[in-house]
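Support request, please re-run this one:
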Amino acid sequence: MASQGPPPGMGPIMVLNSKTQRSQGRQAQLGNINAARAVADIIRSTLGPRSMLKMLLDPMGGIVITNDGNCILREVDVSHPTAKSMIELSRAQDEEVGDGTTSVIILAGEMLINAEPFVRTNIHPTVIVRGYNYALQEALEICEKLALVVDVNDVDKMKSLVQSCIGTKFSSRWNDTMIDMALKAVLTVSRAIPMPVGSDSYSQKMEVDIKRYAKVEKIPGGEISDCTVLSGVMFNKDVTHSKMRRRIENPRILLLDSPLEYKKGESQTNVEITDEEDWNTLLKMEEEYVENMCMEIIAFKPDIVITEKGVSDLAQHYFAKANITAFRRLRKTDNNRVARATGATIVSRTDEIREEDIGTGCGLFEMRKIGEEYFAFFEECKDPKACTIILRGGSKDVLNEIERNLSDAMQVVRNVVFDPRLLPGGGATEMAVSVGLRKAGLKLEGIQQGPFLAVGEAMEVIPRTLSQNCGVSVIRTVTQLRAKHAAAYEEAEKTGGEDAFPKCNWGIDGTTGKLVDMEEFGIWEPFSVKIQTIKTAVESACMILRIDDIVSGSKKRGH
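Re-run finished. Output below.
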């Protein structure tokens, strides 16, 4: 048999550059598992209502104080490639469903930690991955059976749902205010889209564009209890002329995106004038052009004119004379929000204005001074489909943290509007999945049984971390919870045969560490968030386990 090495008398052949660092096989896998463990440990203490905050300093000297998993990991500077891909997980989770960013990292980390003994005993990674994927399918089926369908308009259920999201955050002291704000904002912005006949998909029925139509205005000062959601919109602009009205009831609003000043040439224009009268004629023509535009607008008798471009002094004069309030240089996004809230249509040319373009949905327009700035409020709108959320708070850091918490809460409500199914919170779902997988794993044969059961064990990390952050005895609490779920399984098997599924909603009260029935306690989480968390965690663990070679110091680009 020919030998595998190089011919005799020749040294080892270096294929890679000598500066390249390379770790292979088991060494690479164990290195990856340790990196995942390190990332999970960073944010383990930020899970649950008794969570701690992290303070991060960026290179510029700014500080971020938060317990939002995604936000912490975004700020942390990491060099290990696996740790970087773990951090991507929380970002994907944040963009997809908006909540569960901490859970997904802790779960993925635990999945990898539980795979370590298999790697050490030389079980091939693809076998582990196969077991993990099989367990994922089983876990998703258990979640489907546990799910509870909810009515989006049932305010109490929705409140308890947002409570489970916000209860773990910094702003939990003002829970009721925050929950009402999140619910009101999302239900204001959501609107039904007519579906094509014969389709029955969930997600297409409602359009909830929080990013575009629910604007958060942070104004330092005041008290956090002063935060409100307007039934309309506001923006940070003052009227263009001091004589214009500052309070109008039931205004007629006209929105433009054309300038109300004479047109300047695109390129440089030179005009030669031979007669001095021509100069006056030119000026007169410019004035007539502006006057014409103003007259076209005034003919429709609007009370407020808002344009995204400039308003010349002459136009201001005409508007002030006609008792019209004008705003200029408004952002495109703000203009879209005003249009949605008041029912107006944005017009591009003044000669194309029609009566139906005028917005009459606003009940009250008022200018108010908050702190040093003037703000224009459009309130009491009839059925506004856009809103502004005003946040007040002591300092900028507090406001930023509240904004992050509120956006999480709004995402949670949005998910439920899309897919109105819930799962019990407080580690109840994870424990039910864990016990269910343990039962299903006993039917499996061969080498896959180990990895399959390992996923079940990994799911226990959520109730375990919750009880850890409360400061109660972890082993006792988790064992009692496991016993509750196992007893429910046995009960169901006695009454309903082999395939019966128990609905056991027992979990951990994150504040006291006691075991409670989540149905009575009222902590629910959106189905889509939980499912996304489990899927992302298992799939990323599978991907990281299949890495067997890490080469760093590869070619620089452009060489």
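The chain has a mean pLDDT of 83. The chain has 18 helices and 22 strands.
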